[in-house]
């Protein structure tokens, strides 16, 4: 069996992917769900028509924070056969604009409420931990916390029946890398009475 802890995505793409997965198919009103293809990371391609309602996940500048003096070893990822292990060097922090597009103010309000509730943990704590399956096989999780919401209305958007809201979400993801376990694992030497004397 191959070592399962390899990355498909970089940190920014992994965070966007986790948010898209969290919102795709989200029920925002009784019997009404966001279509899975209406939630996109970054921007939809020009040849793809924009559906309403829809959501675009647009990350800002990613920063690396809380660097470890000594990388934190993820022991559960250590593989004896390959000699590989994952280590956590620091944390990626980014503010993401979750852009919500709706056809009217009521639909927009329902979407904002549903997305904010999705980004709240079941235990009542604020923020949520999201699976990140395409970043080192899910060895790390994204912590997403909504910070603010802004409605963007003007006369043109009202005439075109397009109502927009932007929710700012702070996301944190441990930054991982693959390294050889040799030299990182503590070596123990058992000393017997015979050797001491």
Q: Could you describe the largest sheet, including whether it forms a barrel?
A: 8 strands, mixed
Question: How large, in whole angstroms, is the Cα Rg?
Answer: 22 Å
| Tally of strands | 10
Net shape: elongated
Unreliable sequence segments: 185-190
Find the structural class using helix and strand composition. Answer: alpha+beta
What fraction of residues sit in β-strands?
35-45%
Kindly report how far apart the N and C termini lie. Answer: 47 Å
Number of domains: 1
Oligomer: single chain
Tell me what you see in this structure.
18% of the residues lie in helices and 36% in strands. The protein has 197 residues and is an alpha+beta fold. It has one domain (11-196). Strand 1 (27-29) and strand 2 form a beta hairpin. It is elongated.
Summarize the structure.
The chain has one domain (11-196). The chain contains 4 helices and 10 strands. The strands form 2 sheets. Strands 3, 4, 5, 6, 7, 8, 9 and 10 form an 8-stranded mixed β-sheet that branches.
